Amino acid sequence: MEEEEDSSLVRRMAGGDRSAMGMLYDRQAPLLLGVSMKMGFDRETAEDLVHDIFLEVWRAAAEFDPLRGTVRTWLLVRLRSRALDRRRSGHARHVVAVADLQTVDRPLAMEEDPVLSSDRAAVVRGLDDLPPEQRHVLELAYFEGLSAAEIAGKVGIPTGTVKSRLASGLNKLRQALGRGP
């Protein structure tokens, strides 16, 4: 239900509906802000990042394809990309482990989204069930933004091993989330 509403808001945004943008912001900004802060940004930088994401989403609303994923995923992918760009430019304070996702606060005064809670809990459970070596390379890739070659150098294993662990870990997560074979 919520995803249908979010998709509808994005379609309305593509048609120039500014009120739809405000509604989508109200629904999704708390999540994006919390994730930004857990990725190591101070509140001001995180707020700037979220603002930038929504400007980008406003311009790209017509490009959203619900067959490729949910609105929330689309927003989070954009956030991750912009956050990594900022981190590389030296704006991040520190790196946070995936385990800390359990404690992502909703910094804006809004009630906890029950859909978000179950998603977050499922991801954390899925990550907890991964072998430590798969979990570690996933954390390095997704939360520190390292390439397979950079992870290989940091961990001291061949790049091919990193790629295998990433692929296997992602497949296990998809299965745990009911989104894969």
Task: Report what the structure shows.
- The chain has 181 residues and is mainly alpha-helical.
- The protein is 69% helix and 0% strand.
- The chain has a domain at 2-97: RNA polymerase sigma factor, region 2, helix turn helix motif (Rna Polymerase Sigma Factor, Chain: A).
- It has helices spanning 2-14, 18-38, 43-60, 71-88, 114-129, 132-143, 148-155, 159-176.
- The chain is globular and about 50 Å long.
Overall 3D geometry? globular
Strand segment tally: 0
Could you name the CATH class of the domain at 2-97?
Mainly Alpha
Order of helices and strands: HHHHHHHH
Mean pLDDT: 80
Secondary-structure-derived class: mainly alpha
Radius of gyration: 17 Å
Q: What is the correct CATH architecture of the domain at 2-97?
A: Orthogonal Bundle
Query: Which parts are unreliable, with pLDDT below 50 for 5 consecutive residues or more?
Result: 91-115
Strand content: under 5%
